């Protein structure tokens, strides 16, 4: 048994992606951000759907139509495959912990 | 967007199972318990694997070999298909919120 809030690195040069479960049907991962965003990167444009929930912290997702959505603890959203998105903002001084299910 | 901690019923005669995502590959569900257990029911004996995380509350899972495991907020465990288990105990006075991914 593990705990989703354990083993948070003190130093995070970039967002941290950790696979919790991976098989041919799905991937469950924990993502940790601390002030990171992906504005300078390409859009996330994924073949699979992504169900994502914020477990701690705060974040803003940006979509290709320039709409954005703010997420706080417990908020979840389903992002269909190929719905382009970026991470616009995450809280700067605390870690933001995401649970993502790619399916 | 929804929040996993919202819309908790005041009265829970039995555990509440709510599908968040369902397709032919996986099901993501929220389960709410408040003092419930499944000791008088048959073992859960599922074809699919189940990845489960406790988001609030406390619970004890019992396995067929009589081992048990206590879960608190943030704890997660992967239960392979056909690993028989029951819910032995959940906290009596607060709701216990589970996130389960069946895959």
What form of chain A results from the Cα inertia axes?
Answer: globular
What pattern of helices and strands is seen along the backbone of chain A?
EEEEEEEEE
Seen as an oligomer or otherwise, the chain set is homodimer
- Rg calculated over all Cα atoms of chain A: 13 Å
User: Which chains have the largest interface?
Assistant: A-B, 27 and 27 residues
Discrete helix count of chain A: 0
The biggest beta sheet of chain A is recorded as: 5 strands, antiparallel
Overall strand count of chain A: 9
Distance between the first and last residues' Cα of chain A:
23 Å
Low-confidence stretches of chain A: none
Cross-sheet strand order for the largest sheet of chain A: 2-3-9-4-7
Strand content of chain A: over 45%
Instruction: Write down the overall mean pLDDT of chain A.
Output: 96
Helical content class of chain A: under 10%
Summing up helix and strand content along with how strands pair, one would put the structural category of chain A as mainly beta
Keywords:
homodimer, 103 residues, mainly beta, 5-stranded antiparallel beta sheet, 3-stranded antiparallel beta sheet
């Amino acid at each position: 048994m593990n705990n989703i809030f354990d083993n948070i690195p003190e130093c995070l040069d970039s967002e941290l992606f950790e696979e919790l479960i991976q098989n041919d049907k799905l991937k469950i991962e924990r993502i940790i951000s601390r002030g990171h965003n992906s504005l300078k990167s390409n859009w996330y444009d994924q073949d699979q759907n992504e169900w994502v929930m914020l477990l701690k912290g705060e974040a803003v997702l940006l979509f290709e139509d320039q709409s954005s959505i703010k997420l706080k603890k417990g908020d979840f959203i389903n992002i269909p495959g190929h719905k382009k998105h970026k991470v616009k903002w995450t809280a700067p001084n605390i870690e933001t912990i995401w649970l993502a299910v790619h399916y």
